[in-house]
Amino acid sequence: MKVFITGGTTGIGWSLAQEYLNDGHTVGICGRDLSRIESGALEKYKNLQAFRADVTNREELISAIDKFSGGCLDLMIASAGRSVGSKTKTPDFNASRDVININVLGVLNTFEGALKNMLPNKAGHIAAVASVAGMVGLPGASSYSASKAAVLKLCESYSLDLKGFNIDVTCIAPGFVDTPLTQKNDHGMPWLMSSEVAAKKIRKALDRKKVLFVFPWQMKTVMFILERLPRWMYRGFMQLPFANYSK
Asked: What is the pLDDT of residues 66-120, one digit of tens each?
């Protein structure tokens, strides 16, 4: 099986890459800085290919996907993402634009490159790593919540649109995972798990072709409740000191 993973040089993306590499699959990863790849990985894994590509650069990314796939791609995982570590009530619009560009347009570019290779064959599986943050508008995380909400709904629509082309779609919505991204956070992270554990859970969900996978179960339960609260009640709850991490 051929698997391509954006944001595959670190974090969840790299842990997922190792999951598939260890099972003998051919894996392509891309990132803006290939020096972040684990030392010795390219020598250790002969079935690994690495490409320097920015997901916000459409032509660069699609070119990398084409080189790897050669017209045949089984699984694409859009794992590249960005957050704003310090929560604040005053929006940082420059950072917000970067978050939207990477988390939304980056996923669009990734899926475009994948479908270019999958649609002619009428086979394949596309997946994106969103977040539980996309289920509600979290205080101090406006652009991040908005970007992940967009990914959740994009995948939901694609799961309907692409069914007739025999292409599966999965959206992954994790809680807090210990990665270079979350290590920048300056707030509490309940039910934090390692990227290795997260990757194993995601791999099982992908193998089962789940349309939506939200984890861990504790975070899923909390977000399920918050998502379904009347919005006036949710807004009131999130103003409480113990619920609001923003400054």
From this structure: 999 999 999 999 999 998 766 777 888 999 999 999 999 999 999 999 999 999 9
Domains, in order of start, for the chain: 2-238 (3.40.50.720)
DSSP code at position 186: -
176-190 burial, b at 16+ Cβ within 10 Å, e below that, comes to bbbbebbeebeeeee
Q: Are strands 2-6 and 26-31 parallel, antiparallel or unpaired?
A: parallel
Residues labelled as active-site residues: 144
Q: What is the pLDDT of residues 175-224, one digit of tens each?
A: 989 877 676 666 677 888 999 999 999 999 999 999 999 999 999 999 99
Question: Could you identify the residue written with the tokens 């084409």?
Answer: 66
Burial class (CB in 10 A: 0-12, 13-18, 19+), 50: buried
Whole-model pTM: value is: 0.93
